[in-house]
Amino acid sequence: xxxxxxxxxxxxxxxxxxxxxxxxxxxxxxxxxxxxxxxxxxxxxxxxxxxxxxxxxxxxxxxxxxxxxxxxxxxxxxxxxxxxxxxxxxxxxxxxxxxxxxxxxxxxxxxxxxxxxxxxxxxxxxxxxxxxxxxxxxxxxxxxxxxxxxxxxxxxxxxxxxxxxxxxxxxxxxxxxxxxxxxxxxxxxxxxxxxxxxxxxxxxxxxxxxxxxxxxxxxxxxxxxxxxxxxxxxxxxxxxxxxxxxxxxxxxxxxxxxxxxxxxxxxxxxxxxxxxxxxxxxxxxxxxxxxxxxxxxxxxxxxxxxxxxxxxxxxxxxxxxxxxxxxxxxxxxxxxxxxxxxxxxxxxxxxxxxxxxxxxxxxxxxxxxxxxxxxxxxxxxxxxxxxxxxxxxxxxxxxxxxxxxxxxxxxx
Length: 412
Description:
The chain has 412 residues and is an alpha+beta fold.
């Protein structure tokens, strides 16, 4: 943040118990997972609540299609007419079974993509939105980069195993969860994405009304746990069984991402891991109101020295200081809006608070200059930050100011 800082104070949140949990009372993390890589994420904050090899790069199979779907929703028109190419027709199973030249509405292809995981539908969508599979892959990678996914690389729109000079078609469990977070919450098309993902059965025809199709949703998680809102399965020989899904219950929104979760004949492993991780999130975490520490009162006692600043007493001699405020405080007023801030915390964990500030400032200082931050820590890791600023501008105490002040004092 800044080169010269000091930790002003450190203490426990008032929302937590006074004593640390004993080893007997300590909550046990999920164990015995089948997945090679697994993540449980708090979708509201994007914070990882649990991970097993969460940053390990692995093939992702048809979980890829959540990115294909969201890009089609963002860059396409649902009433677009999409034509099947030779490349699309020749995709391996699982496929819709289109014939070359067949025309289908984009909206219908998205149900084919998400409910049945059809590989030919994915290629039709990619070629229509990106001009080619390669062009669409570039769009996928650009979107991944914009979401902060540095270990994700897309080559195909359907998730089939592939590699090129830049590496393999792969992601990590952490980044797959991050992409799902974008799809169900952050994208402007999140509502439409959820509507498609939650559809149980969908019927449609091609544009010539010659071919009729029915798509059934294969996401068993939707019926497995109350509050399940989205998900996508996947399997390839390299990736194994994969899954990414989301649930919203009791004001919690949780995402599970699994990679390498068994190989034939262990298709059900992913559902066991998903249930175990989601139940852990529901049972072991609770929201704390991190603003109830009444931080504004604590900040009232903090002042930062301002070198060569106009003295607080308004006289030529004296020292200059500035008070510290939270960035959201309108016009520097102390408000209780911090009480609305919530943090999802495991029940046996303690939230710690520390204030990190610049040791001193140098005049002139502009109003609302950022001078530090409030940090909320769990197990030594910063999980939330709030920016601190100065309220008013501070003039430099120079010859011109001293001369003016001398004249004012003489006149008075």
